[in-house]
Design goal:
mainly beta, 2 domains, 11-stranded antiparallel sheet, 10-stranded antiparallel sheet, 35 strands, 0% helix
Length: 437
């Protein structure tokens, strides 16, 4: 399967990438809890734009049979500063006996086509589609299937449209369909189940609207000659768009107490007590996850882990905070110990100006074997070389253009060692990352 994908930021205003610190030996660098403002404001429309499209997909319940093809989208949380454009192309799909296709083209856009009118739009255009392929050919065939989903907002409110959606030479169970079927047309498929053509799902509320178009949606609810499991669903040409008002920015982030991986990202111990931030925050409510004890022999042992997320989004600001608090920390046979470690990451946008900080971050009772000068006030991005083991980071702060990540303890094993820990192992304790878009 050949595939190409492009994402363009259009005229979306950027801002300078800021680096909070270099790989410093303790004693240098910025103050541990300094807030770092963005250098250039980002213009927000006051709306969240979301859009995505794909060519084909098949599943049975939670099990994916044929994954989404030629996916385009504006990101998991959408965007607030149009224009943004995404597109994707796949030359062919062969998921026989479910389906085969020729070229698939998809797009997703957030734009302001006319002053005062905001628009989220996606398209999926599939050529030479054939579904439920039997010895007699496809039960459903079409030369072209195109889904278009458009959500707009203007002075009169929210609107949705499927204009541009189309079938070319559609045949269903031997019957040619020469006009665009009305929305949600349900047709029996003898020996298989049924199909919904031009499926449309509209949601319009006072402050938001969204619109889903699935041009072909097959439901397998009978035993069949292809032995497809009952419950199988097949979608061809999916397009989705949506707008939400009163959104200065969108949030994202994650916090966890401990994690360990080896080369290639293979997980030894997954994120403990993990908590995530939703795109529109937590409505000002504290979201929490906790665990009493985490032990991974040789690597680390910790006591209680409490991770939190707190976020608010409105028409003037977006603000998110994620924290990870870990007690009774012991890393690699008391190489690093502490009675308490807390990572605290803040990201906010007010009037389009982005600000990040790690205010609230702390160590209590920090001790590193062989480094008597290390104490609770260790500066950000303190990097120590541990002979016969690797690199130890303390209060590591990673600043990107729209996020801040705090890793309070990170040990990266680079040498063969007496502990038998594999080279490439990455141990992290108390991690919080917050971002704003």
């Amino acid at each position: 399967m050949k595939n190409k994908n492009k994402i363009h930021k259009g005229t979306m205003k950027g801002f300078a990438v800021m680096i909070l610190g270099l790989a410093l030996v303790f004693g240098f660098g910025p103050a541990p809890h300094a807030a770092t403002p963005a250098l250039q404001p980002v213009t927000s429309s006051g709306f969240q734009f979301v859009a995505d499209a794909y060519g084909t997909y098949a599943n049975v319940g939670n099990m994916v049979i044929a994954g989404k093809t030629a996916v385009s989208g504006l990101g998991a949380c959408g965007i607030v500063s149009p224009p943004v454009h995404s597109e994707n192309t796949v030359l062919s799909v062969n998921a026989s006996p479910f389906l085969t296709t020729g070229v698939i083209n998809t797009t997703a856009d957030g734009t302001e086509p006319v002053a005062g009118t905001l628009q989220a739009m996606s398209t999926a255009d599939i050529h030479d589609a054939s579904l439920l392929i039997t010895t007699l050919g496809g039960v459903i065939t079409a030369d072209e299937v195109k889904a278009v989903s458009t959500t707009t907002h203007d002075s009169s409110g929210f609107h949705t449209s499927a204009e541009g959606s189309a079938f070319v030479n559609l045949v269903v169970a031997g019957v040619a369909i020469t006009v665009l079927p009305p929305p949600n047309t349900d047709i029996p498929l003898p020996g298989f189940g049924h199909v919904v053509l031009n499926e449309q799902i509209t949601k319009i509320r006072p402050t938001s609207a969204s619109f889903t178009v699935n041009m072909i949606h097959v439901f397998i609810d009978q035993a069949n000659v292809l032995n497809l499991p009952i419950g199988t669903q097949i979608i061809v040409a999916h397009a989705f768009s949506g707008l939400t008002s009163g959104v200065q920015g969108t949030l994202d982030g994650v916090a966890y107490g401990t994690k360990a991986t080896v080369l290639g990202g293979v997980v030894v111990s997954g994120p403990s007590a993990k908590v995530t931030m939703g795109c529109l925050g937590t409505n000002g409510n504290l979201k929490m996850n906790e665990i009493a004890l985490v032990q991974v022999p040789t690597l680390f042992s910790v006591g209680e882990v409490v991770d939190t997320a707190l976020g608010t989004v409105d028409d003037t600001s977006a603000s998110g905070e994620l924290t990870s608090t870990v007690q009774a920390v012991d890393v690699v046979s008391s190489l690093v110990t502490a009675s308490l470690v807390k990572a605290d990451a803040h990201a906010s946008s007010t009037g389009g100006t982005f600000t990040f900080s790690d205010d609230g971050t702390m160590f209590v009772g920090l001790h590193v074997a062989g480094f008597p000068d290390i104490n609770d006030d260790v500066p950000p991005n303190t990097r120590l070389t541990i002979a016969g083991l690797g690199t130890l980071w303390l209060h590591r702060v990673i600043q990107r253009s729209n996020s801040i990540e705090v890793r309070m303890i990170e040990l990266i094993v680079t040498q063969a060692n007496i502990y038998g820990i594999s080279i490439g192992t990455d141990i992290q304790v108390a991690v919080a990352e917050a971002s704003v878009h």
